[in-house]
Amino acid sequence: MDTERVSRNLKAFQTWVPHLAAQLASHVPQSSLVRNADGDWDVEFRGEFLYGPGGRSRSEKAAEALALAPESRVNMAPLSSYNVDLITNRFLSRILRRGTDAGLAFLRYPSGPQGFHVVSFGLGLGYHIPVLMEQVDPISVCIVEPNLDFLVHSLAVMDWVGILEMAAKGRHHVTIEVSEQPSEIARRVRAHLRYSCPIMVDWTRFQQAYPSAILTAAITEFYRDAQLIGIGLGFFHDEMEMVRASYMNLRNADYRIFRQSPYPMPTPVFIVGSGPSLDDDIEVIKAYKDRAVIISCGTAARVLMANGIQPDFQMLLENGAAPYRALKAVADEFGYADTVLIASNTVDPRVKEMFRTPVFYFRNSLSSYTMFSPGDQHTLDESGPTVTNTGVAAALAMGFRELYLFGVDLGTRTQGRHHSKHSLYRHDDDQKDGVDGAMNFDTVFDQVEVANFGGVAHTEAIMLWTRDALGRAIGRYRPAAEVFNCSDGLLIENTRPMSSSSIRLKSTPETKARDLARAWERSLLPAAEGHFDERWQRENWPETIKALLDKVQVVLDGSGRDLNKLMLDLCNTLITENEGPPTVAQYFVRGTLLMSAMCLAYYVRRVQPPERTDEFWTIVEEEFMDILRVLAIQADWFFENIEVFESDEELFEKVTEWCYD
């Protein structure tokens, strides 16, 4: 064994991955590092070998053979007008039209092996790693190994110094993880890709190092959810609306502010969504309404009130006129009485007029949060992407530790019934003609996942994102918090399936009233006079946005048409969470810019014939510069007209009709 190599590698781990270095230094392997007949290193455990004769050669050749194989890559679907904003759609349409007019075509897969991310599911002794590095020339490297023995043995076999020191050059991201759980491995890989560069997931190269049921399951889950890595980056016009709504909601101190509380409260909480299984549980909710805090999430309000249940809290996350109309219809039909609104500061400003007590929390990861929030204690962790997330996050943040989920199906067992029959959503057999606020449901449940009580449920991408966020939010409070899922939809991590008929509450009306009073005292505080003016007048907001756009222009000019460099520098300019809170300007423009860059990256690697790629680069550079021009003009216009529009629909009508030239 080369003890000097082991020493060098350990020193590199101590420098770059100190938490893992301590594990490596203290771990006593159960297996042995041995030489095989070929003179190569192998791992032996109870007479079984990791590689066997010719193992190193097989590992290297397998990696070489899969260089361009689609099954060894993440293949993202091209973005379309359906899932991008107006400005990105304009960029995408123009680059494709100009490209095709010039006689260019676009391949289904990139023509070369280069990519941004390399992921190794398992390490073994790392024989395949140099092959992957040469193939892909990556910026980002992620290795997750279930067996710490192999990492210890690899110290004597491979050159860890070269890999770990990539991070020292300032342009590379390297993550080495140890985990034995497939779901955890998949999550950590997704987190690494999201942190390193969420817009370059397409054509990510991955390799399974050796046969393993754990690694196979991890790859399956990772590939299934890879589409979630680049989701939720935001859109420029959405940021406009959320800043406009925040401005209108907060300029008068006629509301209260939510604050997180560290003090636990024992009263149980019913979190109520409007999924189809709610109809089966409504009588149980009614029976316990005086002994449990009832939190209505979005459109669940009508279901509850139609069944004689007045919620204690009404949650609202989504901005826009459609949620306002839905809540207004419930207010007109039933009235909210003493129900307390807990809503994002970005909701339609007309919503708060319907409630005696509106309470705003500051929705993070938005320009309006950075602009107006008085501090992190006034936000909710994992409050999206749906209002169900808001309800769970608010209950936990107020201090409640016993939660029951109803109607949180995140999909459906039966495709024809997507919400409760009492909700405002129309169904095939229930058109709700003439009902104020009634809405069509256009989402397609095109995926199948494990259901809460066994079997499967139909779902889709946003619901899967919701499920993952719920699991993370609840996990932060475990084991102190216990969450029971009574919904007949998706299985949710960190919750316990429970039939509603099994619920036996020990609380009383008196204990409920006591804890609600504590929530008022600790978490629902009066707004501070002068807060709005102080925050709003801190900066010349249009000028900060234009200054950032100038920096993006410098990045584009300095890329040298090196795609990996451009995407890394663009992400480093717009996504700076590792250095500190993002700025208002970053939040304002980065969603649209990053989505446009994702379109750029997808097509510039697929130009046919490849030797004409430079022609396409000229097109995308010109059109990307035009995005910067449009964003600068619209930023000026928006802040000059922030008080003009009554709703997001009026704002979007104006920007839809915008004359870009």
Oligomer: single chain
Number of helices: 23
Integer-rounded radius of gyration = 27 Å
**What integer is the average pLDDT?**
93
Question: How many individual β-strands?
Answer: 21
The percent range for strand residues is 5-15%
Return the structural class: alpha/beta
Helix-residue proportion:
40-55%
Largest sheet, spatial ordering of strands: 19-18-15-10-11-12-13-14-9-20
Supply the number of structural domains. 3
First-last Cα distance: 68 Å
Main sheet attributes: strand count, strand direction, barrel closure: 10 strands, mixed
Low-confidence stretches: none
Shape: globular
Organism: Paramagnetospirillum caucaseum
Pfam family, one: Maf_C
Protein name: DUF115 domain-containing protein
Give me a quick take on this structure.
With 661 residues, this protein is α/β, with parallel strands linked by helices.
Defining key terms:
ten-stranded mixed sheet; 43% helix; Rossmann fold; alpha/beta; globular; four-stranded parallel sheet; 661 residues; 3 domains; single chain; 23 helices
Give your account of this protein's structure.
With 661 residues, the chain is α/β, with parallel strands linked by helices. It has 3 domains: 191 residues, Rossmann fold (3-Layer(aba) Sandwich); 273 residues, no CATH class; 117 residues, no CATH class. The radius of gyration is 27 Å and the shape is globular. It starts with a helix and ends in a 5-residue tail after the last helix. The mean pLDDT is 93.
